[in-house]
Amino acid sequence: MPIENRENAYLITHALAKDTLSRIRDVETEQVSFRKGLVKLGRICGYEIIDGRMETEYVELETPLETTMGERVRGLDDVVIINVLRAATPFVEGLLKAFPRARQGVISASRDEEAGRGEDGSFPITVDYVKLPEIHEEDTVIVADPMLATGSTMCTVLDHIDGSADPENLFVLSAVSAPDGLLRVDESFPDIDLLTVSIDDRLDDNGFIVPGLGDAGDRAFRTT
Ligand SMILES: O=P(O)(O)OC[C@H]1O[C@H](OP(=O)(O)OP(=O)(O)O)[C@H](O)[C@@H]1O
Ligand SMILES: O=c1cc[nH]c(=O)[nH]1
Ligand SMILES: [Mg+2]
């Protein structure tokens, strides 16, 4: 479903996606359930991308009884998933259930929260590690990060990917987005489609999404 006034941003509206997100937002949801919830959400989002964004084709096949026509999803072998460390790790685990043959890339990018936000509202981003597969024209590339807050991390990640190829589909997939982050990424990368389960109200003074779900990395990795 397209988001009003934003050509390239779309909500994932599957009821189970909303249900799962609501469960992991809950402050009472502990680490294991939180992590499993992110995995489940990744799987549902993967199925939604297949259903809404990929084409099917008819193929002739032999059942044990006779020849018939079946329908197959096109391009499942040409999917690249980029894992933005570290909070995206369980989210990507779920996506891989939908795209088991995806080629994978990893980028470690994190906000320097001590430095604080600059005048434009962005955080400085530290990139420690980048390992991307070669991206081809026919690929569907999904850059996964459950949280899109100021958009600083995602813009930095996309800077690393952008020059390397011009794939058929390039999606940024998040679970929770803030309006500021969507706007920042949309303005910097107008050709990229932004997919998210929820657009929350705002950012707080520390750049956290409100109502959000807190620090996704800390909750999944139990580091607080
Ligand atoms: O849109 P932004 O303002 O850039 O914020 C979003 C980023 O912040 C979180 O990562 P964090 O830097 O906390 O690292 P982590 O995944 O290691 O916890 C989150 O997973 C995103 O990558
Ligand atoms: O709300 C936020 C913002 C950035 N990163 C998170 O994990 N949560
Ligand atoms: Mg991160």
From TrEMBL:
Reaction it catalyzes: UMP + diphosphate = 5-phospho-alpha-D-ribose 1-diphosphate + uracil
The enzyme class is: transferase
Q: In which pathway does it act?
A: Pyrimidine metabolism; UMP biosynthesis via salvage pathway; UMP from uracil: step 1/1
Q: Which HAMAP family match?
A: Upp_A
Q: Which residues bind GTP?
A: 36-40
Question: Domain Phosphoribosyltransferase, which positions?
Answer: 13-223
Cofactor note as given = Binds 1 Mg(2+) ion per subunit. The magnesium is bound as Mg-PRPP.
> InterPro entries, per this entry?
PRTase-like (IPR029057), PRTase_dom (IPR000836), Upp_A (IPR034331), UPRT (IPR005765)
Citing just one GO molecular function, the answer is: uracil phosphoribosyltransferase activity
Q: Where are the transmembrane segments?
A: none
Give the similarity note: Belongs to the UPRTase family.
Q: What is this protein called?
A: Uracil phosphoribosyltransferase
Cofactor dependency: Mg(2+)
The record lists 5-phospho-alpha-D-ribose 1-diphosphate as bound by 86, 111, 145-153, 215
- Species of the source: Natrarchaeobius halalkaliphilus
Binding positions for uracil per the UniProt entry: 209, 214-216
Q: State the UniProt keywords alphabetically.
A: Allosteric enzyme, Glycosyltransferase, GTP-binding, Magnesium, Nucleotide-binding, Transferase
Question: Gene3D superfamilies attached here?
Answer: 3.40.50.2020
A single GO BP term for this record reads: UMP salvage
Annotated EC: 2.4.2.9
A Pfam family reported for this protein in Swiss-Prot or TrEMBL? UPRTase
Activity modulation comment: Allosterically activated by GTP.
Q: What does this protein do?
A: Catalyzes the conversion of uracil and 5-phospho-alpha-D-ribose 1-diphosphate (PRPP) to UMP and diphosphate.
Please give the CDD domains that the UniProt record associates with this protein.
PRTases_typeI
